[in-house]
Amino acid sequence: MANLADSAAARAYAVQVARHRRWVVNPDTALTQPIFEGLVTQNRRFGKPFCPCRDTDGGPTDQDIVCPCAYAQADIDETGQCYCGLYLGVGKDPNTVTSIPERRP
Ligand code: SF4
Prior knowledge:
Layout: H1 7-21, E1 24-25, H2 29-46, H3 72-79, E2 87-88
Antiparallel strand pairs: 1-2
Helix pairs in contact: 1-2
The structure holds iron/sulfur cluster.
């Protein structure tokens, strides 16, 4: 896990993840900047970058929502975006990013 000291580090981490998973980081910085700041806050609070779009107490039952969450691939396969809209599938138009149903049980 990268040390997410600030939102620039969170962005750099996301770029690495996207490259590895063959995703794209959403280029809409107005949307992603609060997500990066949220990831930094979660990382500072809980020691891991829990999804900033979901409630968490940082406990063991929430490991599935450490970013990139366990649901991102299925969401991207189905809708072209992750739940927060941070990661997109290749070819997804960022202008079509919207709120999608929560897949998490
Ligand atoms: S929904 Fe996106 S930003 Fe949130 S944890 Fe999953 S991959 Fe990360």
